[in-house]
Design brief:
Rossmann fold; 14 helices; globular
């Protein structure tokens, strides 16, 4: 924390299963984690998250956190109030809190949720509601004294939304470089999960709707005659049951639950290649946080993204990029890397080097802290 006093306002853990974690109660409570005071507020968690349910879910957190946030603003007089988007609905509360303490509002954008809704066809871009949401987004972002996001392409998008370049800073998600080491021996998960295939195409992460993950099943079907390749989909989420139904009859696909963080190096080292599916149009709206750890594992990545996008640029030299929603192209890329060991190894070495240079937690946080000190 570099000498900073930090207070976090959040909800009980519920993601990705959309269910309050069994060791937590959905009530107000205060704990201390590694020297950080964490204040949790109750939140409505829908069993089946839909558009309206998600909005209600986010609004309840704003309401239940209102008094604790304003109380801390008055009593602790923070220099900076950080709001992380998603969801932008946290920003009005953060902005209001700055009026009680004269602190600077810092908005950190993990993904552009309004445009992502367009890309996922959850919302038509030319509707009145869409125009209202875009205006709401611009209005909120304009309140920021500091605006950060996770990639160069997303920084440019912030500027396109009217944010002054002097307020914009690239604050990447980092890789756990010290905790993830490229494996030189078979992963423990080979025996644990009974995997005998020589090569493993691994997707590890959230399994949500509208992510384009379905292309992995179509790709597995195309490659079903290859007995030397198996697809492992590791994670949980609202779309897992539907994805498992889609994969029925696919003998080369296995599903596994989210694994403990302390086993992350073994899990990622299981891969011959990592799979990173994205829907068309989303590559510059979000940079998947899972990419950093994929690269740190020293394995090549096969991603679905258009050339020239921020995601494609991040993977250049560390893997292969194919068009979104094209299972034949994805199968061809996986096959190419499996059958060309020298290229695969070279990409893996480059991936680890890229992670060390651009995704180091120590470097990222040190540079960020210096930047924030100049701004307050």
């Amino acid at each position: 924390m570099q000498g900073c006093e930090v207070i976090v306002h959040t909800a009980p853990p519920y993601y990705p299963n959309w269910k309050i974690a069994h060791s937590y109660a959905n009530i107000w409570n205060k704990t201390n984690i590694a020297g950080v005071n964490v204040l949790r507020a109750p939140v409505y968690v829908p069993s089946f998250p839909s558009g309206p349910n998600r909005i209600l879910h986010l609004l309840t957190f704003t309401l239940t956190s209102l008094v604790p946030v304003l109380k801390n603003a008055v009593l602790n007089r923070p220099d900076v109030i950080l709001c992380i988007a998603p969801s932008l609905l946290s920003v009005p509360l953060g902005w209001l809190a700055t009026k009680f303490c004269a602190g600077k509002l810092w908005i950190h954008v993990q993904d552009f949720e309004v445009e992502a809704a367009f890309a996922m066809n959850l919302l038509k871009e030319e509707t009145f509601l869409a125009k209202l949401l875009k205006s709401f987004e611009r209005h909120l972002l304009a309140r920021a004294g500091i605006a950060t996001t996770i990639s160069p392409a997303m920084c440019r998008k912030l500027e396109n939304k009217g944010i002054s370049p002097g307020k914009i800073y690239e604050f990447r998600n980092w890789a756990d470089i010290d905790e993830i080491e490229p494996l030189t021996v078979p992963s423990i998960y080979r025996d644990r999960w009974g995997i005998s295939a020589e090569h493993i195409a691994l997707y590890s992460g959230n399994i949500a709707n509208k992510q384009g993950i379905e292309v992995l099943i179509d790709t597995a079907k195309i490659m079903s005659e290859r007995t030397d390749v198996i697809f492992v989909i590791c994670g949980n989420g609202s779309n897992r049951a539907d994805l498992e139904k889609l994969a029925e009859g696919c003998g080369n696909v296995i599903f596994q639950d989210l694994q403990p963080k302390e086993a992350l190096s073994e899990l990622l080292g299981l891969a011959t290649v990592h799979l990173l599916p994205q829907i068309a149009g989303a590559a510059d709206l979000v940079l998947p946080s899972k990419l950093a750890n994929m690269l740190a594992s020293g394995r090549p990545v096969v991603a679905t993204a258009e050339l020239g996008t921020g995601l494609a640029d991040e993977i250049a030299g560390c893997g292969v990029v194919v068009p979104p929603g094209d299972p034949k192209a994805l199968a061809a890329a996986i096959t190419y890397l499996i059958e060309n060991e020298s290229t695969r190894v070279a990409y893996g070495i480059a991936a680890r080097s890229r992670a060390t240079q651009a995704w180091s937690k120590t470097k990222i946080l040190s540079n960020l802290f210096y930047y924030i000190k100049q701004k307050i």
